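Reviewer 2 asked us to include a model.

Predict the structure of this chain.
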Amino acid sequence: MEVEIRTDLPAKTKREKKRATVVRSHEVGLRPGDAVAEPLKAQRGEQTSANAPLIWLEVLRIPPNPRLVICRYTALGEERRCTVWVGRNSKFVPRMKFWLAEPSDPVARARPWAYAGPLPRRRGRW
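Predicted model (structure tokens):
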């Protein structure tokens, strides 16, 4: 029994590794004499989530929607309520507390807030 060996096959295509993007000084707005430049988002005046104040939210109720949690927080001496989009609310229970960045836009406060932190590993344990 003979086995055919092919050597004329094309070489395998290799994917390049993802690398951090290299930011050039002229893209950021850095002049040759400047030592440090502001990030591009800050120059445009966009709001970043790093500047948003963190507040304590307390879970008030678990609604029928499996991805939402109704929470309350205090701001300026009054109690406010909000809905938070947690992805999966099976491990959240009432009276649970967690940190979340408050949206700066008043329109965004009316919609469900996005939660990007880690979900609890056990029910009610934060």
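The chain has three helices and five strands. Residues 49-114 form one domain. We have added this to the supplementary material.
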